[in-house]
# Entry
Amino acid sequence: MEKTIMDGTFWLALVGAASWLPQIISWFYSWIAKPRLRFVPEDKTEIGFTSLGPIFNQSFAISTSRKDALIERITLAIVHESGAKHDFYWKFLDERGAEITSTTGDRAEFRKNQPAIALKISVLGLTEKKIGFQDLFYQNKLTSCFRPAQEREIYLEKTKVANYQQETIKTKEFLDMLDFIKSGFYWIEGKYDVYLRVYETSLRKPHIEHYKFELSKNDIGRMEKNIEITQESLKDLVLYKGKDLKEWPQRFYNWVNPSFYRAK
# Structure
């Protein structure tokens, strides 16, 4: 009788343990699983040149399978067919919001903009983001040109030079900065390869995807006009310093939108 009771207890314990087995397996899988990312690009990209330098903005639908993903950094290596290579880093995330249509038929889309610090992607659905990429090397170089020009302006102002604003934009330091803006424009006609690198917290190596786009002669001509616009906008910082923003000239940058697609 005692043996029968012990056997019954044993089998009950075994059944109880077996009921936990699926949950244990699930916990173990969650522990060892790694996210599998996928970036699906919009078929057009947005490329420009502004006071921030070369700009590359691209919208993606992003998904992950197996496990939620936490993205800490995204970079782009943009390589021209000539071999010229430039690195871009994410700076902002733009999320699409509601869209309204006016009585005239014009449509306006509201977007939520935020600094690119980290991005959480869930296995439960797609995340749509417009990611703004900028060339930090260019920006650091521009800053190193801007400081001497700014220091020269402060000196002329303190020494009460007549029309110090006009004199500032004629100084060697300021002209060197304007020259750098012209020489720093590196978009050229031709085909480009884009290597997207995504740094996710649980992945040892970056997730990499490969895309392509092409810039035409007209694209380059359109963006080259931004060189002068950028130079003039920097002059505005001096010439209109202290004035109401309503008095500042309105300057608009030109953008191009070539086809953007996954490399085969």
In short: The chain is about 35% helix and 35% strand. The mean pLDDT is 88. The chain has one domain: 37-143+165-242+254-262.
